[in-house]
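In the design runs reported in the main text, the only information available to the sequence generator was the tokenized backbone. The following block is the verbatim input for one such run; it is reproduced so that readers can re-run the procedure and compare outputs position by position.
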């Protein structure tokens, strides 16, 4: 597991603490429509405030491309953030490094919280500009990174800032890294990975890394069609990257050499097109009609996957098994997710999931709360599974050594 400092290592009383958060939350009609990321952040803010810190929140929102764009202001988040913090007052500054930010930081008393304006209103943020990082650092005395979902970005508030102040991980970052280490660095075995989604091309590095680490690799969604087609199995009009047949075959060969079992669907739910309530039927793989599309795994496959997962001790899940957003093509993902959740609740499985579509699929199945851990990160979760170094994590490790 990465070696970094945590809140337990900081004396925060009376200190201005810069907290890198990820407040890039869904909005509708000017209000927060999903407060999950705020709720995950709240324990770190609450703990710091209880310990007498003067908390200064830093975050990006959207892609304003280095200039102020009113619709990307963080100010509309203040009421939802205050509610999530149990009614605690949250001050707001209309800049992140200018006079108002400095005044807001200076006004804070022990246990008080301020939110600064969108970091990406400044071009120095995404450029990882040292001068911008120094301007941020001048506002605080300590730095806490609680935005694992941004850890894959070498931006000023993620990478450079951690080198300028004593730096530690917040509770959310600590939990994310702990569970991911448990999943891939020292897992209880057998270790299974379930990888779904549309395209193999977006997850080549992930699959290449996983076959060297896991005992069982389940491939679903449109990705499975590419692997089936690579073996000469007809998949009709299904989404498949036929030009990646050689790549898929190489992954299958590498898995065999590493004693990693790859499971692909043995039956599928097919239809003429992806429409809610479309007429569908279940066919055996190998009997997909030329005019049909594979849109979900079949019940035989779902039962087989559940049985194999039951033989494992750890499961890492990234991507749905079918077009779960469109019933009836959610049945396969729902069935396997519920089986994994039941095993987790029974204490037989450590289950770790992440990625935007994955989180949505688990909520759709009604089991997101029953998994051991569901990561709020998308790109960072994927890059960790790919075995890449994350700049935000590397910065915390370097800070701990310093």
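Verbatim output:
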């Amino acid at each position: 597991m990465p070696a970094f400092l945590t809140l337990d290592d900081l004396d925060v009383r009376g200190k201005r603490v810069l907290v890198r958060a990820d407040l890039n939350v869904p909005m509708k009609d000017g209000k927060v429509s999903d407060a999950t990321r705020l709720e995950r952040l709240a324990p770190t803010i609450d703990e710091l405030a209880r310990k007498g810190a003067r908390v200064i929140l830093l975050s990006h929102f959207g892609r304003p491309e280095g200039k102020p764009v009113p619709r990307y202001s963080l100010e509309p988040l203040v009421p939802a953030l205050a509610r999530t913090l149990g009614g605690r007052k949250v001050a707001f500054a209309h800049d992140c490094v200018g006079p108002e930010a400095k005044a807001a930081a200076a006004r804070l008393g022990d246990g008080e919280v301020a939110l600064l304006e969108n970091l990406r209103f400044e071009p120095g943020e995404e450029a990882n500009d040292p001068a911008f990082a120094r301007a941020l650092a001048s506002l605080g005395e300590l730095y806490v990174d609680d935005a694992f979902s941004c850890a894959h970005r070498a931006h000023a508030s993620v990478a450079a800032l951690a080198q300028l102040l004593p730096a530690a991980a917040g509770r959310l970052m600590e939990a994310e890294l702990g569970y991911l280490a448990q999943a891939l660095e020292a897992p209880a075995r057998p270790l299974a990975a379930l990888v779904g989604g549309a395209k193999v091309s977006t997850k080549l590095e992930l699959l290449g890394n996983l076959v060297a680490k896991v005992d069982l690799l389940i491939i679903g969604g449109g990705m499975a069609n590419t692997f089936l087609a690579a073996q000469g199995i007809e998949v009709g009009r299904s989404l498949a990257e036929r030009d990646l047949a050689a790549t898929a075959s190489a992954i299958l060969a590498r898995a065999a050499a590493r004693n990693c079992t790859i499971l692909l669907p043995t039956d599928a739910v097919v239809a003429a097109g992806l429409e809610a309530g479309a007429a569908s039927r279940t066919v055996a793989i190998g009997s997909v009609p030329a005019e049909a599309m594979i849109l979900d795994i079949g019940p035989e496959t779902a039962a087989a996957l559940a049985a194999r997962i039951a033989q494992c001790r750890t499961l890492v899940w990234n991507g749905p098994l079918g077009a779960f957003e469109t019933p009836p093509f959610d049945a396969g993902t729902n069935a396997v997710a519920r089986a994994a959740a039941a095993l987790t609740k029974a204490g037989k499985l450590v289950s770790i999931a992440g990625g935007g579509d994955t989180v949505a699929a688990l909520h759709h199945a009604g089991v997101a709360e029953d998994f051991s851990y569901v990561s709020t990160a998308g790109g960072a979760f994927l890059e960790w599974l790919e075995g890449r170094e994350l700049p935000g994590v590397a910065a915390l490790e370097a800070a701990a050594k310093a």
